[in-house]
Write a structure and sequence with these properties.
By secondary structure, this protein is mainly β. The strands form twelve sheets. Strands 30, 32, 33, 36, 37, 38, 39 and 40 form an eight-stranded mixed beta sheet that branches. A hairpin with a 5-residue loop joins strand 26 (319-327) and strand 27. The longest helix has 19 residues, at 755-773. The relative contact order is 0.05. Mean pLDDT is 84; it is low at 1-18, 441-448, 566-573 and 757-843.
């Protein structure tokens, strides 16, 4: 046991009749509890005067109250004796004292001492009292002082600590004064702290109220130089940064069947910290933690600590708890709110109520729900299906469920691969926080005594390639049973495994973008938001081949799983499938261009919907405008889960990029209405979503708009042309990707929308039909009925059509302005009707 002396002096006043003129503690008056378990202390009494048998009492109650044990008192100097009586040391003079010194020495056991305590001894004579003091402390990792030493940073050494970190100031001088200053924002200083080391030469200071830049002085005075200047050689530059340490329980109300999980964060990236579990109300300094976990923050300053189920800790269960996180380097701590742990109800497990379906070769998902437990024992199959496996599903994140994934393809080992003898080879948990476990296999164990894989009518344990299934589980129904303990059957459902198939192949188009800029493979929804179904792909757009296929998702997850269907290698393997895109118009005596599935620019796998997407850049792979292709997805006859080969295909053409304006007149001039919102539209064969830049330009003005091609292959935008006079000539340009359309344009008062032409055609058609088959009177009625869709002009035309038809059969139209009293459209109708009537009569 290491023993040290403790020293420092506190002088006291005395009266003329005192038994002693002074009392002090000899030596160091600071005890560093980090280095010692015991100390020896001496109290010096000077100029003691007294008679034989006079007594001097030393009250040591504050020492014992601080958890320090006093023992072995003795008198080292002077003719006297001493004995301990409870919290007092009684010194008895053995002879007459005349101004003599008296030293009383005793041992201190500080193993259980409280830190950061100022402790006093009271020395009493018949006439007076004297007080001497010392203190206990724990020396910190950061020690600052006026002089450098082995563990002390002297002046002119910049220091950075976290706010809340405790700093030891050791000035190597009794009763020193340390001051902290910060800039006042101008040319002066503001003092933020003044600390005394009394009693002794060292003191701890907790920096939770600080954040920023400071200067430490060791003589009680302000810094010598102004802010912004170099500090003096006798001073220390101190920076205090925010640690931002927090501890937050993911759930503050949990049951005895659930885990206590705490998220801890700080600004100290990658630093170590300690998480401690206590009962609510515990003293962190005196009480032991129920459980302690040493952890490390990640690169973002985050960490998660799981204390597990508190009821699994001996003597603990329902109650109130708190978690304390301590940053190891600084000692700064943070605590959670109170965690309320209540007694859990009965453990229960559940399975889906309806049949679970999946195709052979794909991955079936079985959701196991749990209440008041984090484990469920699961059995798949039975003697009726000649196959069974059992395992334990563990809810690692306490969310009340485990999604169990059963890869039906991997229930047997591939050619030359390892035998399937363990459920881990084909059963997994969807959530990485959850897990699948199995009990150990004993000698001669069966499914009643341990978990594993069992095959055959007698359900023999699979132990090697000769005893496993040999091929993936067959199409059929399989019992799924779950229980809260092994060999219990609390709930049951059925997994139905059906035959797989290639259902269809479709083609889509995606706007031109490099493969590196496509959404990631796990961002399928984002990718699909930019595709449109099409069998014509503009050159340089991306062709997307969609294969709706089942029975392959248990083993095809990467591009290199697609082989070359034109050169099927010998022994291709039980899982061989391919997708080829083959040119169909290569011409005579020419080899077609072929793009194999494993050379696609990108892939997206959607096992949930039995779909795979292949992305081909039509600007690559020797694809040219004018090419025609067939995309064929094929499963070979040797595939392990298909009973026979199967395939589906779709075709698409690759066309030159095109963009064109609509509404050109007979002279191929674009007519643009004089308006604040004049519409300009067009069409394009580029993928919907492709940006089209539209420009209208005169000799001194340029108007531009950007718009996207819509799902119908059209684009439309508006310009403010109200400042241009009708008749103003301009040029119009539409450009998208590599396509461009330039035309002349003109500002007009209005753009013909084609409505009159449509009405004329309808009226003519109806009038012609009725005039040919019916009497003149019937013609009048029909014309009236059909022309009511237009305004008053057409209604009036209906009243006189018959009369004028008869009169104008040989009329050349007079002055060419139409039949008097009629509009041009109605005149044309009447002429046609009259001609048909004359023809009928001539027949």
């Amino acid at each position: 046991m290491l023993v040290m002396s403790v020293f420092a002096m506190v002088p006291m006043s005395a009266t003329a009749d005192s038994a002693a003129n002074d009392a002090s503690i000899s030596g160091d008056t600071t005890i560093d509890l980090t280095n010692v378990d015991a100390a020896t202390q001496t109290i010096e009494l000077s100029e003691v005067t007294g008679e034989t048998d006079d007594e001097i009492t030393i009250d040591i109650s504050e020492t014992t109250d601080a958890g320090i044990t006093v023992s072995s008192p003795s008198v080292e100097t002077g003719d006297a004796g001493v004995e301990q009586d409870g919290d007092s040391l009684i010194v008895t003079l053995n002879s007459e004292f005349t101004s003599e010194d008296l030293d009383v020495q005793f041992d201190l056991d500080v193993e259980d001492a409280d830190a950061d305590n100022r402790i006093r001894h009271t020395v009493s004579t018949d006439e007076d009292e004297y007080t001497v003091a010392y203190k206990t402390y724990e020396r910190q990792s950061v020690v600052l002082g006026a002089d450098s030493s082995e563990d002390t940073l002297g002046p002119n050494n910049p220091v950075t600590v976290y706010s809340g970190e405790t700093i030891t100031f050791d000035n190597n001088t009794q009763d020193a004064v340390i001051s902290l200053y910060e800039s006042d924002g101008d040319s002066g200083w503001d003092r933020v702290a003044r600390i005394s080391t009394s009693p002794g030469d060292a003191v701890n200071y907790e920096s939770s109220d600080l954040e920023g830049d400071y200067v430490v002085t060791y003589d009680g005075a302000a810094p010598e130089n102004d802010p912004g200047s170099d500090i003096a050689g006798s001073e220390t530059e101190l920076t205090v940064e925010a640690l931002d340490l927090t501890a937050e329980a993911q759930e503050i109300n949990v049951t005895t069947a659930e885990d206590i999980v705490v998220d801890v964060s700080s600004a100290a990236f990658n630093d170590d910290f300690t998480a401690e579990l206590y009962e609510e109300g515990a003293d962190f300094e005196d009480d032991d933690a129920i459980d302690t976990i040493n952890e490390q923050f990640d690169g973002t300053g985050e960490a998660t600590v799981n204390f597990g189920n508190v009821s699994e800790i001996e003597d603990y269960g329902a109650g109130d708890y708190v978690v304390r996180a301590v940053h190891d380097n600084s000692g700064v701590d943070a605590t959670t709110d109170t965690l309320n742990v209540t007694e859990a109800g009965d453990a229960e497990v559940d399975l889906p109520g309806s049949t679970i379906t999946q195709e052979r070769g794909d991955i079936a998902e079985i959701t196991v729900e749990m209440s008041n437990t984090d484990e469920a024992y699961v059995q798949l199959g039975s003697a009726d299906s000649n196959f069974m496996t059992n395992f334990t599903a563990v809810d690692g994140d306490s969310d009340g469920e485990v999604v169990v994934e059963v890869n039906t393809y991997q229930t047997a080992g591939a050619d030359g691969g390892p035998a399937v003898t363990d459920p881990h080879q084909f059963v997994s948990a969807s959530d990485s926080d959850d897990s699948i476990e199995r009990s150990s296999v004993g000698e001669g164990g069966n499914h009643n005594s341990s978990q594993g894989v069992f095959v055959g009518g007698d359900l023999e344990r699979a132990t090697d390639a000769d005893s496993d299934l040999g091929s993936p589980i067959a199409a059929g129904t399989y019992d799924v049973i779950a229980g809260i303990s092994d060999n219990t059957r609390d709930v049951k459902t059925v997994l139905s495994v059906s035959e797989p198939g290639v259902d269809s192949v479709n083609t889509w188009v995606h706007p031109d973008v490099s493969a590196n800029n496509l959404p990631d493979s796990d961002e399928l929804d984002e990718f699909l938001s930019s595709v449109s179904e099409s069998d014509e792909i503009a050159n340089e757009d991306l062709a997307v081949v969609e294969a709706q296929v089942s029975g392959v998702h248990g083993y095809i997850t990467e591009d290199n799983h697609f082989g070359n269907g034109q050169d099927l290698p010998a022994g291709a393997g039980a899982d061989f499938v391919w997708m080829n895109v083959t040119q169909t118009n290569e011409g005579p005596n020419a080899n077609p261009n072929i793009v194999y599935g494993d050379n696609a620019d990108n892939y997206y796998f959607d096992a949930t919907n039995d779909t795979i997407y292949f992305v081909l850049d039509t600007d690559q792979h020797n694809i040219d405008a004018g090419d025609e292709y067939e995309a064929d997805f094929h499963v070979g006859e040797n595939n392990w889960v298909y009973s026979d080969s199967d395939n589906e295909s779709a075709t698409f053409d690759v066309a030159e990029q095109n963009v064109e304006f609509s509404n050109l007149n007979e002279s191929d001039v674009l007519e643009v209405e004089q308006s604040e919102n004049a519409s300009v539209s067009g069409t394009s064969n580029l993928a919907p979503g492709t940006s089209v830049d539209v420009e209208l330009e005169t000799s001194n003005t340029l108007l531009t708009q950007s718009v996207e091609v819509d799902g119908e292959g059209e684009f439309s935008t508006e310009f403010d042309t109200s400042d241009w006079d009708t008749g103003t000539e301009l040029s119009a340009t539409a450009s998208a990707a590599d396509a461009e359309h330039n035309v002349d344009a003109v500002i007009v008062e209005s753009v013909d929308d084609g409505e009159d032409e449509t009405t004329t055609e309808e009226t003519t058609e109806e009038t012609t039909e009725e005039t040919t088959e019916e009497t003149t009177e019937e013609t009048t009625e029909e014309t009236t009925e059909e022309t009511t869709t237009e305004e008053t002009t057409e209604e009036s035309s209906g009243e006189d059509t018959t009369e004028e038809s008869e009169e104008t059969t040989t009329d050349d139209g007079g002055n060419g302005a139409g039949i008097p009293g009629f509009g041009m459209a109605v005149s044309l109708v009447a002429l046609v009707a009259a001609a048909l009537l004359a023809l009928r009569r001539s027949n």
